[in-house]
Amino acid sequence: MNNDSSRRSFIKKSAIASSAAIVAPTIVSSSVFGANDRINAAVLGVNGRGKNHIQSLMNQENVQVTTLVDPDMNLLRERQKSFKEAYNKDVALVQDMRRTFDDPDIDVISIAAPNHWHALATIWACQAGKDVYVEKPGSHNIWEGRKMVEAAHKYDRIVQHGVQLRSSPAVREAIDLIRDGYIGNVYMARGIVFRWRPSIGDKGFSPVPDGIDYDLWTGPAPKRPFSRNLVHYNWHWHWDYGNGDVGNQGIHETDLCMWGLDVGLPTKITSMGGKFLWDDAKEVPEVLTSVYNYPEENKIIQFEVRPWCTNEEGGATVGNIFYGDKGYIVVDGYDKYKSFLGQDRTPGKSGDDGGPSGTGMDRGAGGTDGHFANFIEAVRKHDKTILNGPVETAHLSSGLAHLGNIAYKLERVLTFNPQSETFVNDEEADQMLTRNYRKGFEVPEQV
User: Fold this and answer.
1) Of 144, 77, 78, 69, nearest to 108 (Cα)?
2) Is 43 helix (H, G, I), strand (E, B) or coil?
3) Is the peptide bond before 232 cis (omega within 30 degrees of 0)?
4) Please, which domain of life does this record's source organism belong to (predicted)?
5) Structural domains of the chain ordered from first start
6) How does pLDDT run along the chain (447 residues), one tens digit per residue?
7) What is the CA radius of gyration of the chain?
8) Whole-angstrom distance, CA of residue 388 vs CA of residue 161
9) Sign of the alpha-carbon dihedral angle for 346, 352, 354, 356
10) 344: buried, middle or exposed (CB in 10 Å: 19+, 13-18, 0-12)?
11) What is this structure's pTM?
12) Is residue 93 a contact partner of residue 87, using CB atoms and an 8 Å limit?
């Protein structure tokens, strides 16, 4: 089966709107770029993945990063210096992202801010007529993920989710093999995230350092006293800002599980885990195992996060395993796979984007350049149908992680209605589908 048609089938099957239905676009695109038209980009969040966004955007033909955005002016000045050294160009510095939405010279917004900012920044950018590349997870909770989808459709914007393995030729080949029955009837996908995650200690509270606008950093989330256990990066391990490793590294794998099985959100969810290693400031579980059941499709997803010394599974420590009645396929990381057939596990077809005979994806960059190239092509053509990671996948793959985290917090099996995107007769669980937003940073009910 052609991979593009399978992607469209996935979106059509799984992106069923709730009572707040997706509406038809109400505006016409402000511009369609020609091949020789320069695209100006702003990068929001420049500490971690933002550095990769800068590099990948600058690697695209006739694309210019003109603006760097971060609440930490100290970090911005560091990136401005390294940008000048790398590209011999100046770049503007902005602390408040809203200034970039008001800037008519900026065409594309690339979001690498903390998770709690992803949905609102995407919605604001769409409302301002900008196209968006947003890091995983697309959302911090399920409700705001649906609002992202609605905003992208209403304002007719190109929104790419940062799951770069969807642009890997090798991974796409593996999906085609699954679709074509190479390993038979595929009934289960297993996602694994075995990452070295040490203790973060407990640094306590401290004054906000000079140069950081902590109110802007906090944005839609509850405002806690400042701590170096939050700013920067370790916000991943606190519920108000991050989603644990299943909502960090794990989104690549939740996305691939759903893509490979050709399913949307599940109807039965259970999850168990905890902190077993470190007496530190992390709030999220270090070890987490979640099971997502699809009784109507007769399929199941298993997902596991481990933080420390552990074995490989099928040669992978971060990746996916698809099980069929004729064999199984292991997707290792972002850009390679191998298959095994029959009871004796005879090696079958394999693919790797990073070897000498690879197909052009830079394994070291995890395919980020290729994923941005797909995004920029869609921006130039104003054609969301060619996106490898459209906004619907941001909502769904993030939503799968959120469902597992909710089941973990409530310590019980949950029943979910994918059509309404609510739990079945469970008011307590429904309350966890969204959050209270700070004044001035509300995700709008009507986008």
Assistant:
1) 69
2) strand
3) yes
4) Bacteria
5) 3-166+367-391 (3.40.50.720), 169-201+229-359+397-425 (3.30.360.10)
6) 455 544 444 444 444 333 233 233 333 345 567 767 999 999 999 999 999 999 999 999 999 999 999 999 999 999 999 999 999 999 999 999 999 999 999 999 999 999 999 999 999 999 999 999 999 999 999 999 999 999 999 999 999 999 999 999 999 999 999 999 999 999 999 999 999 999 999 999 999 999 999 999 999 999 999 999 999 999 999 999 999 999 999 999 999 999 999 999 999 999 999 999 999 999 999 999 999 999 999 999 999 999 999 999 999 999 999 999 999 999 999 999 999 999 999 999 999 987 544 445 555 455 899 999 999 999 999 999 999 999 999 999 999 999 999 999 999 999 999 999 999 999 999 999 999 999 999 999 999
7) 21
8) 8
9) positive
10) exposed
11) 0.92
12) no
Chain centroid to CA 23: how far?
24
230 near 238, Cβ under 8 Å?
yes
211's tokens: 């140069």
**Are 120 and 220 a contacting pair, CB within 8 Å?**
yes
Do 69 and 94 touch, CB atoms closer than 8 A?
yes
Specify whether the CB–CB gap between 406 and 66 falls below 8 A.
no
Amino acid at 149: V
